[in-house]
Amino acid sequence: MPRGSDFSPAQSPSLEAPAGPATWRPDTLLVRGGLARTGLNETSEALFLNSGYVYPNAEEAEAAFDGTLERYVYSRFRNPTISVFEERLAALEGAPVCKATASGMAAVTSALLCQVRAGDRVVAARDLFGSCSWVIGDLLAQYGVKAEFVDTENLDAWAQALAKPTRAVFLETPSNPTLRIVDLKGVCDLAHAAGATVVVDNAFATPLLQRPRDFGADVVVHSATKWIDGQGRCLGGAVLCDEAFNETYLGPFLRHTGPCLAPFNAWVMLKGLETLSLRINRHSATALTLAGLIEGHPAVARALYPGLASHPRHALAQSQMKAGGGVIALSLKGGRASAYRFLNALSIVDISNNLGDAKSLACHPWTTTHQRLSPEEKLIQGIDEGLIRFSVGLEDPEDLAADIGAALDAAGR
Question: Could you tell me which residues come within 8 angstroms of residue 206 by beta carbon, excluding any fewer than 6 positions away?
Fold first, then answer.
């Protein structure tokens, strides 16, 4: 949001000398970062849908494969359209390297699986998207990797878990769906002392609201399907890291296993990035307004939003994020019955397990996104049967307020 009510205002433009890409501000990078035109000088980024490339002679083909000549070889490895998306996102996130993947979960799985070996240990936050929990707790276990899940917001619990050597740490902040906030610097310091690589899922915040590498994170992953695309059009993901991690672990893994992003999807994501600042500011501003209205309704047991002063870690969120983002969690007093009445009474907001769309979306995590967790695990994560995850869209805030207000009234009957 234009940095909500307790964030400093944006500075006024000044007539300085033109800056180069290295000093461009985020809004400029969103439109022009990584831009590479063909000889036709097109205004929009070119879309390269080809899978392969040809060589003028056999000697150049050999040089391309032995690494003495850097050029495009195969779109599973590199593609011009994907390269522009990767360079633009890397500049925004402040990372030397970005590697695009077919989905957010492909990014999460690649960032972890590329670096762990049998006998290694992974420590993760307990509050995670359901598929992330499965990858860490179930998939990695099949390869002899031990996992320990810790109380997400308890730094002492992190310290205890990281008192032993650890290969990797994984967390998301804000968490899905209850918007818990992790102390990034505190966990990164503990993790590095344990010899661990810190992987942070930054999908909820986007690079515009939070840059985990600024707090010590080593690897950042995104589900570009969410806010980066922003219009529910296609899937995509990204892993951001330094050169050493890419050369040693990530690059070879991606090259040989192939969870690559499709060129068309990369082109769509580029168009999404061009408007990300406009959208995320509007999402955040509307979310802050709606969260304030929601928490005062008699049918609501609790409303969770990082931008609210009532959020348990509001101060920490302010120190790590530029705004609260576009997701609100609300728990209704009447449990599942009230949650269903609320969802079924919505007329503008759609029921969907997706988020980060121009359209407002709401879902019931207990029975959808986190259904596979046991009741005990759900409650530990703060997911009760009355919880609703609400992804705030770009509709008129007054229309959304009216729709939500009517649905809350229905929930309370």
Answer: 222, 227, 228, 276, 280, 325
In the numeric block, the tokens 């010590």 are attached to 216
DSSP notation for 353-412: S--S-SS-EEE-TTTTTTTTS-HHHHHHTT--TTEEEEE--SS-HHHHHHHHHHHHHHHT
Statement: residue 338 has pLDDT above 60: yes
Rounded CA separation 274/254 (Å) = 27
Report the candidate in 230, 228, 165, 232 with the shortest Cα–Cα distance to residue 202.
228
Give CA–CA dist 104/316, Å, rounded: 26
Looking at every residue in the chain, the average pLDDT score rounds to: 94
Strands 387-391 and 237-241: unpaired
Instruction: Indicate the SS3 state at residue 177.
Output: coil
On the question of pLDDT at 206 being above 90, the answer is: yes
Rounded distance between C-alpha atoms, residue 375 and residue 73, angstroms: 49
Q: How wide is the angle at C-alpha 412 spanned by C-alphas 384 and 365, nearest 5°?
A: 25
Two structure tokens written together for 115:
């670096």
Rounded to two decimals, the pTM is: 0.93
Confidence of residue 168 (pLDDT cuts 50, 70, 90): very high
Angle between helices 263-274 and 276-295 (to 10 degrees): 70
